[in-house]
Amino acid sequence: MPGAILASLASLAVVWAFINAGENGWAHVPRVGALVNMGLFVGAHFAMLFFIVQFLQRVLDFGPFLAGLAFLPLTGTVFIVTRWVPGLVERFGARIPLVIGGVLVVLSFVLWVPLSESSTYVAVVIPLVLQALGVALVSTAGTLTVMRTVPEQDTGSASGMLQMVQRVGGAVGIAVAVSVYASGAVEGEFIPGFAGAMLAGAALTVVATAVALFAVGKPVAQLKV
């Protein structure tokens, strides 16, 4: 638990630093806000992948191949929905897709909290599709916000920064969720601590959504460097 608290405080410190960077000489706030949002969001998503695949294998007794197939609704939904998101961003701006996507992901984590030894795959896949919708909205809108209006000579740096933030966010998200899980874990059992891990993922997504709400505003086409 102390590790989870420390990691959460560190995440909040990073959020505060990036949000206030625009007032102190860094890039404009929408782009920085999108970077922070993406980092926290990817952290929550990676934590979900880490725990849900174990739930499928250890509780539902899925083999590795079947557990992989069980994630196809996630992949398929992201593939289908992502193609429509750029048009939404152009029309309404990035904030609306980022916030709606964040709400959907929070809802998915909340729906996973009650999972137990008697749960079925249906109880897993419905929130999985909700999370997929959120992933499609957030990942596309966030990437567009970060990369649009970046001078051509800086696109490599911007892309590298986005990838770095996502990797760091993924590592932090898993660390936070695992720490929370460990605080309630029982040796030899998987379910104890699982609800806490899902709530940790929801909490990371709430922070990410708050960043999007307050730091990402204008339509992408109107952002200035």
Report what the structure shows:
The chain has 225 residues and is mainly alpha-helical. It has nine helices and no strands. The relative contact order is 0.22. Mean pLDDT is 86; it is low at 21-26 and 220-225.
CATH superfamily membership, which one?
MFS general substrate transporter like domains
Biggest β-sheet strands, sense, barrel? none
SS elements, strand count: 0
CATH topology: Growth Hormone, Chain: A
Q: What is the overall shape?
A: globular
User: Judging by the overall fold, what is the CATH architecture?
Assistant: Up-down Bundle
Q: Which bin fits the share of residues in helices?
A: over 70%
Order of helices and strands: HHHHHHHHH
Query: How large, in whole angstroms, is the Cα Rg?
Result: 18 Å
Strand content: under 5%
- Secondary structure category: mainly alpha
First and last CA, distance: 41 Å
Overall mean pLDDT: 86
Give the total of domains.
1
- What is the top-level CATH class? Mainly Alpha
- Total helices: the number is 9
Q: What ranges have pLDDT less than 50 throughout 5 or more consecutive residues? A: 21-26, 220-225
Task: Describe the secondary structure blueprint for this structure.
Elements: H1 2-21, H2 29-59, H3 64-69, H4 72-82, H5 85-92, H6 95-112, H7 121-147, H8 155-184, H9 194-215
Helix pairs in contact: 1-2, 1-8, 1-9, 2-7, 2-8, 2-9, 4-7, 6-7, 6-9, 8-9
Produce a short descriptive summary.
By secondary structure, the chain is mostly helical. The protein has one domain: Up-down Bundle (Growth Hormone, Chain: A). The chain has 9 helices and no strands.
